[in-house]
Structures are given as C-alpha cells and as structure tokens.
Amino acid sequence: MSCCAGKGCDEFFDERVARRDARRYRRRGLDGTAQRIVELTQRRGIDGKTVLEVGGGVGAIQLELLKAGAARTVNIELSPAYDPYAVELLRSSGLDGRAERQVLDFAEQSDEVDAADAVVLHRVVCCYPDYEALVGAAAEHARDQLLLTFPRNAWWIRLGVRTVNRLQQLRRSAFRVYLHAPAAILEVASSRGLQVATRERGRLWEVASLERATHDT
Q: Which of 63, 101, 111, 196 is most buried by its number of CB atoms within 10 A?
C-alpha cells in the first residue's frame, strides 16, 4: 500500500518504508499478488503499450512491465519518499528514460494525467476514503485494461482493519485503512464501460482485471 488520502500519507509511507520496499524488491522480486497483476497485463498484451500506476511506490510492477515490453510507464504518488529509491531502481535497470513519476492526488487531479492503455491500482483503493472518485478516475484513464487489487470482505480482514485503525488513532496518526465493498468497487469501473474479465480471491487480497469491450490489435 503506497497511496492514501492526503492526511497521514507522508508520515505513514515515509523514507523507512520506501527503503524497505526497494530492498525487498531487489532481494525477492515481486510478491505473488503483484506478480499476478503483471501476468494479467501481459495476457492482454503489453508490447508497445503505456502503463499508468496510481500509488506504485518504488515502481516494482512498472519495472517488470517495462522489462516485458511496455513502451512507457507513469507513476502517480502522494508520498514523495519513494522517488529516490524508484529512480535508482530504474537507473540500475537502464529503464529510466521510459518512466515518469508525479506527486499529486490522482482522484482530485486526474485531469493533469494522460490516459494509458493499462491502469493499475495495486493495494491502493483500501487507502483512499473516496473509492468512487479514485476508481472512477482510473477507469476513465484506462483505454484498454484496468487492474485492481483490494482486500477481501472477510471477518479476519475486517478485524485487521479495525486493529490497524485503532493503533493509528492511539499514535495520533491521521492515516486510516478503508474496507470498501468489492462489488461496489467493481461497479464503479463497470459504469465507465469496463467489463470484469478476471476476478480471483486469495486469502487476503482480491485481484480483478477489467477490460474494454473492444480490443484494438
């Protein structure tokens, strides 16, 4: 989770978290859920395509898609702490000329961002209170495919969210986690002309790939 509503974002997703995420990616690569996002994007076709990721953190998914043939990626982030680590990962992979990073609130400033063939929201929807604005903007920017991951609506997830938010309250932090209904999240995207092509449930996370009705080749 690397993107959230403005309140508490900088203090929660700070330099320590960014450094940890970059180190983990160098040592282990993508985790299973992120890897599935890459696979679903490649299944649709990634060669020469553009990718927009909202809340991509150090840009690990973008790096893998660039290696797989994506023409260009754009990352939109609320926390600037990730930028130095993301830039170094891109530079060390020789991919820095094909990637762009911006710091802004995508849900509120989406008109400042160009559309892309594929749009990714990985573990981001649960960190933003207005999921309708966030997912709606993402869907409108997706020319071909929208990829989402969000928490399952299960009792152990609800318990975990309450625990995290209680701890944040005790720490006097403004950051909160939000458990939005999966069906409502997907409905927002569907209302923008996307159709659910794949929906998979893991123990903690759901992965969904939504596509436009027509697919230009």
A: 63
